[in-house]
Amino acid sequence: MIQPRLRVQQMPEYHPPLGSRDRLRLDFNENTLACSPAVKTALENISAADLTRYPEREPVEALAARQLGLEPNQVVLTNGVDEAIHVLCQAFLDAGDEMLLPVPTYTMYEIYAAATDATLRKVQAGADFQFPCEALLAEINARTKIVAIANPNSPTGSVATREQILATAQAAPGAVVLVDEAYFHFYGETVIDLVGQVPNLIVARTFSKAYGLAGLRLGLLAGPETLLRWVRRVLSPYSVNSIALAALTAALDDRAYLDWYVVQVKQARGEFLAGLTQLGLEYWPTEANFVLVNIGPAHKQFVASMREHGILVRDRSADPGCDGCVRITIGTPEQMRAALAAIQIYVAGVRA
Ligand code: PMP
Q: Mind listing the pLDDT tens digit for each residue in 140-177?
């Protein structure tokens, strides 16, 4: 029998709960509406001959870099941030190395680290889910090679401050500090301006959330050339396909659409959180396009009840420290009114 590497044998297969296209998907933190119409037009203009050629990443990388105020060699496009995490692990994690992770956080850091021969060191956040900065700093050691900080974090919506990120980068000079700004647009604060100045800082951005391009798989890493050159060695030159590249060019060009969608979500977020408060539900402050709600022991019934109303939400009760918690994506005001109405029915049923 042919066996894979031991670490791969020990890994579980990860199956996200996909497969419900006809319902309102508030379970993946996607854009719940659409991408820019300019993207649709760009896709329609792709010819059959265009598809015969291998994709060229560099021109679009240069475009993205310019928009971020960076040099072309400080940006690398990837097949979603997931691939970016994967290649960072491949490039930097050797046997005996450690990835340091505040938890709860995004699942894929752990999965890609598990596929290497490095070990994972987790730091549990407190009940307020604030970034556990001091505890994290205390766990940094000579073997720490990657520190992954989702900012805003998922599933909590909490954030690390610029000072906390800088303190982490300074305390771990031998480690890549990955600041995953997948939800940046709904927050507004960034450390991307520090790229190149802080030698061990790499920032990730995705086009799956605010831009509404999750289906095309587009992400990027912004970092000093001295680090990204190793990432480029591991990364396939073709992992971002030409359809995605055409779409990204159009998406980057349509700032107005992006801004419009973010305003929709922020308005909806304010209204929705106020609604949750009125219903007496406990939730954590959020800077992202989702909120973690403490439903309690009936979390499974809650998710099922929402599903009956055609709304999908994500049970996160198995995440560390998240017992009884459900994560709900924030979409447009109209969608969130529908979600709140469904929650109201559930709450009324429980209290009756
Ligand atoms: N980082 C975080 C914090 C996320 O929540 C997600 C998406 N769920 C990703 C990265 C993955 O993004 P992408 O679709 O670009 O792979």
A: 999 999 999 999 999 999 999 999 999 999 999 999 99
Q: Which residue has the tokens 């009324």?
A: 348
Cβ partners under 8 Å of residue 50, min gap 6:
242, 246
Q: Is 30 in the pocket of ligand 1 (CB under 6 A)?
A: no
Q: How far is the CA of 2 from the centre of ligand 1 (A)?
A: 33
Name the helix (H) or strand (E) containing 165. Answer: helix 162-171
Q: Give 198-234 pLDDT, tens digit per residue.
A: 999 999 999 999 999 999 999 999 999 999 999 999 9
Give the model confidence (pLDDT) of 73-119 as tens digits.
999 999 999 999 999 999 999 999 999 999 999 999 999 999 999 99
Task: State which ligand 1 atom lies nearest to the alpha carbon of 214.
Answer: 14
From atom 6 of ligand 1, which residue's Cα is the shortest distance away? Answer: 182
Backbone φ and ψ for 146, nearest 5 degrees, come out as -135, 135
148 phi, psi to nearest 5 deg = -110, 120
The response to whether residue 150 sits with its C-beta less than 6 Å from ligand 1 reads: yes
DSSP character for 195?
B
Edge-to-edge, what's the strand order for the sheet holding 144-150? 75-78, 219-222, 201-206, 176-180, 144-150, 98-103, 119-124
190 lines ligand 1 (CB under 6 A): no
Residue 296 burial (CB < 10 Å; 0-12/13-18/19+)? Answer: middle
Q: How far apart are CA 339 and CA 119, in angstroms?
A: 40
Instruction: Kindly state if the Cβ of 82 falls inside 6 Å of ligand 1.
Output: yes
Is the entire prediction scored with pTM above 0.85? yes
* Triad 213, 218, 221: Cα angle to 5°: 135
Q: E strand or H helix at 60, and its extent?
A: helix 58-67
User: What domains can be seen in the chain, in order of their start residue?
Assistant: 6-32+256-351 (3.90.1150.10), 37-254 (3.40.640.10)
For residue 284, give Cα distances in angstroms to 59, 67, 127, 189, 334.
41, 33, 10, 19, 22
Q: What percent of the chain has pLDDT over 90?
A: 96
If you take atom 9 of ligand 1, which residue's CA is the nearest one? 81
